[in-house]
Amino acid sequence: NRFDNGHFEHAATGWTLTNATIDSTFSFKGDRSVKTTTVSTTASATSVILVNSIVSSVSSNTGQADTLTINAYMESTSSNTRGFRWQVKLVETGPGATQTKYWNHSSTSWTDTDTKNEQEVDTNNRWKSYKFDLSSYPSGNWNIFVYLYSAYQTTSTSGFTALFFDSLALEYFNFDSNSF
Hints:
Shape: globular
Largest sheet: 9 strands, mixed
Number of strands: 14
Strand content: over 45%
Helix content: under 10%
């Protein structure tokens, strides 16, 4: 796992939190999770609540890719469309580095366009695990950042209490051996 503290057992070590807290009363696995009570009525109005602050470096390898796993719990009684956004951002490193790339989950490709992906949450009050397979990294050397955004619940925020994240993982996958 490229994240040293994806279970938040060491509080916010390795992460930058904004409008979110470490919760020690509720978790998917272990003793802690990240909690936000910030919610918007549209996905585009959500804001970053979590980003890795310990940088992971990656480089292109056509025989290897990563899988991002996000475990989320939407505490809500609403049946409105609801969910959260996420982003994977690559920042090129090395002499003359100028590129930034973003993962577009809809097109399953790396793009130059600043892309935030949406994940609809179809079940309230239950931990759900979401896995996103990323393609091999573009040619070059990169620092990788993963951003999680606050919740959205269309039409009305009534019934929303909190959104929790826990057990985040960014794990590489070898195509040749079919293993992580």
